[in-house]
UniProtKB/TrEMBL annotation:
Name of the protein in its database record: Wall-associated receptor kinase galacturonan-binding domain-containing protein
TM helices/strands, residue ranges: 283-307
Keywords associated with the record: Membrane, Signal, Transmembrane, Transmembrane helix
Species annotation: Vitis vinifera
Signal peptide: 1-26
Domain Wall-associated receptor kinase galacturonan-binding: 32-95
């Protein structure tokens, strides 16, 4: 009877250990759940929120949650995250200084495509395009529809304008439509604001309100770099990023990098060609050297012969002069 009780006790203890072990393993293998902050409900790999478990997301793509807003810290600036698109590896952020209102606000930070290096976690691809808005103060009014009259929240508008320059305008366009020659000589250029390339409004319908909507689109950055790291660089391969289709291509440093015929020759044939080149050089190099030496010796002999003939000619001429 006692043995049966012991067996039952041992069995219960073993069962409890197995259950505990199963719960621990399940907890360790449980995938990271998406994080949320305010309106951002699906913050997942490669992104992570500050304070998430260490194994979740990539530390290079850590975001913060402040005052119920998702924040991206970038180049000593804090940007509001408006959208993350995991399909095309893009994240759209807005400068917190930009606001919709009765006056045109300006960014707190100055961010351009040139800020981003090749190996930075984020990129601002030129292939995606961007819109440039130039703010200016002018000494007299401008009637051209391309120039949008604005009311600046900052009276100087980023310029050194004075009371004699009360007219404020904005000129907005992409790289092809915005030209330096479009700026009047009577205007002082202030800040330049870069934003996502959206649909441009017609010249006659441009207003400060539509310009604010354009600027509030923010900028769109790519995080395609994470695919380069995970698919190529972990294998010791270089990576090419194609932002037009949002894909990466790995490049083996030991593979052929051109489309010449040499690229497709088998290794044994390449080795045979190298050996033949060495043999050819060893045979013909002495012959070529001998030919050059022979030509040099022939030149010396000819020069000496000419010299002797001239000496004989001079000797005969002197003898003729001495005969009475």
């Amino acid at each position: 009877m006692l043995n049966k009780e012991k067996l039952v006790g041992v069995g219960l203890i073993t069962l409890l250990h197995l259950c505990f072990f199963s719960v621990c393993v399940a907890g360790q293998n449980q995938p990271c759940r998406p994080s949320s902050c305010g309106d951002m409900l699906n913050i997942s790999d490669p992104f992570r929120l500050k304070g998430d478990p260490s194994g979740c997301g990539d530390s290079r793509y850590e975001l913060a949650c402040e005052n119920n807003r998702t924040i991206l810290n970038l180049y000593r600036g804090k940007y509001y995250v408006e959208e993350i698109n995991y399909q095309n590896y893009s994240i759209r952020v807005v400068d917190p200084g930009l606001k919709k209102g009765n006056c045109l606000s300006t960014p707190l930070y100055h961010l351009t495509p040139e800020n981003f290096s090749y190996d930075h976690p984020y990129a601002w691809p030129y292939d995606w395009g961007f819109r440039t808005t130039v703010l200016m103060s002018c000494s007299r009014p401008i009637s051209d529809d391309k120039f949008i009259p604005i009311t600046s929240c900052n009276s100087t508008n980023g310029t050194t304008s004075s009371s004699s320059q009360p007219y404020h305008y904005a000129l907005s366009g992409d790289g092809e439509s915005l030209q330096v020659g479009d700026l009047p000589g009577s205007c002082t250029i202030g800040k330049s604001i870069f934003s996502k390339l959206g649909a441009a409004s017609e010249p006659g319908n441009r207003s400060m309100s539509s310009l604010q909507d354009q600027l509030l689109l923010g900028i769109e950055l790519s995080f395609l770099q994470i695919q380069c790291i995970r698919e190529c660089r972990v294998k010791g391969q270089s990576c090419y990023m194609d932002y037009t289709v949002n894909s990466v291509k790995c490049d083996d440093p030991n593979s052929c990098k051109d489309l010449s015929d040499d690229c497709y020759k088998p290794i044994w044939l390449k080795g045979l060609i190298i050996i033949l080149q060495i043999i050819f050089a060893s045979i013909y190099t002495p012959i070529i050297a001998a030919g050059i030496l022979g030509r040099a010796l022939l030149g010396v002999v000819l020069s000496y012969g000419i010299y002797k003939l001239r000496q004989r000619h001079i000797s005969k001429h002197d003898t003729t002069k001495e005969i009475p």
